[in-house]
DNA sequence: TCGTATCTACCTTCTAGTAGGGAGTTTGTC
DNA sequence: GACAAACTCCCTACTAGAAGGTAGATACGA
């Protein structure tokens, strides 16, 4: 851990962007070896199997997501701002092609053919994200800055689903702007007040 | 065309369910050959390349979707009923495992690694579906049975995205019921009146 | 000298795709 | 109606390359 970026970090980072592009079956150890500049066998030294690599990759992704949410809550005490910051984060990622999709959302679509250990990690991400969104919506409703039509839980699931669908549409249309077109009415309908 | 179901039909039907399970890179000609009961080479006779097969498969899926929408409009003159019939159709598909995902939605997630000809078909489906939804929302707004917050186009994109995201969540949680949990507030918030 | 990281070399299985042939059916022509 | 050419559909047999993964040697720092 002397280096700022170890080889295994590089492998994970590379694999992540390959998964974002084409899912679990859309990349190979050979692809990673080309990008990172080491041999296939060396990747197996760090991650014995492909399932290991992706499971660890998703676990780390979840940690980062948790950390991101914690930071977001620190900078934005208001629930409405928190929702806006969350959608804004993704709008930026998709806009500048940093990451045009959530790793877990992408893997979720392939669940029937995914190793079980990865499925569990992906599912855990969905649960954590929707739980956080539900708590934000609840606080917003309590403050009167957000208007809920159904239960906070149902609204949170709808919110999360819409954001995921917006990523999909941006990709389908080949137009990052569509993400904003979709999330804007989403915020507006929750009665989110501007500034 | 004497048979009700030709071999190429069977190949397409089989490939469709394999795609729904694991996407473009999640199945092979060998998989199809096992299920359909013919040799790999025979599949190449009907569909020279995998890209051909999937492109034709998606084109047919789009035709069926168009036909389904036309029928749905015939049986349900009211815009609110049309939306409900649309989400209801998918709720049933996901519930009884007929088809737990829209072929185009699944392929859309893999667009960066998909052959261009398939991307165009998938994109066309998204355009057609959102255009239809926009027209339904517009009619509903004109009648006063639906309340739009933004433009019909933006609301239609949001609606479509939410439905796609609901499919994803149902798969992620491994729980078909979540589809209804998500689409219910979606309808409610559009001010869709019951019965 | 132990452990970590990397390498070369290799294995097995799967991948999409091709070559060429056989059986049955259609079609055109006399 | 007879006959041959052409077409359809499926087959066996094969290819080259990519897949995930292993074995064993080497380099090097603590």
TrEMBL record, chains A, B:
Keywords: DNA-binding, Transcription, Transcription regulation. Residues 5-65 form the HTH tetR-type domain. Pfam families: TetR_C_13, TetR_N. One of its GO terms (molecular function) is DNA binding. SUPFAM superfamilies: Homeodomain-like, Tetracyclin repressor-like, C-terminal domain. Residues 28-47 bind DNA. PROSITE patterns: HTH_TETR_2 (PS50977). InterPro entries: Homeodomain-like_sf, HTH_TetR, Tet_transcr_reg_TetR-rel_C_sf, TetR_C. This is TetR family transcriptional regulator.
């Amino acid at each position: 851990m002397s280096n700022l970026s170890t080889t295994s970090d590089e492998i994970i980072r590379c694999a992540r962007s390959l998964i974002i592009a084409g899912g679990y079956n859309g990349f190979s150890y050979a692809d990673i070896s080309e990008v990172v500049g080491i041999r296939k066998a060396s990747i197996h030294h760090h991650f014995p199997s492909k399932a290991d690599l992706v499971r660890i990759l998703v676990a780390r992704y979840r940690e980062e997501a948790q950390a991101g949410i914690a930071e977001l809550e620190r900078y934005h005490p208001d629930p409405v701002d928190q929702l806006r910051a969350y959608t804004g984060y993704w709008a930026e990622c998709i806009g500048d092609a940093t990451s045009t999709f959530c790793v877990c959302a992408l893997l979720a679509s392939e669940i029937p053919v995914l190793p079980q250990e990865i499925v569990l990690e992906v599912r855990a991400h969905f649960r954590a994200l929707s739980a956080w969104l539900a708590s934000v919506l609840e606080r917003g409703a309590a403050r009167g800055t957000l208007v809920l039509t159904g239960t906070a839980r149902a609204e949170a699931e709808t919110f999360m689903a819409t954001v995921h669908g917006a990523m999909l549409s941006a990709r389908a249309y080949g137009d990052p702007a569509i993400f904003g077109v979709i999330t804007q009415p989403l915020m507006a309908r929750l009665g989110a007040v501007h500034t």
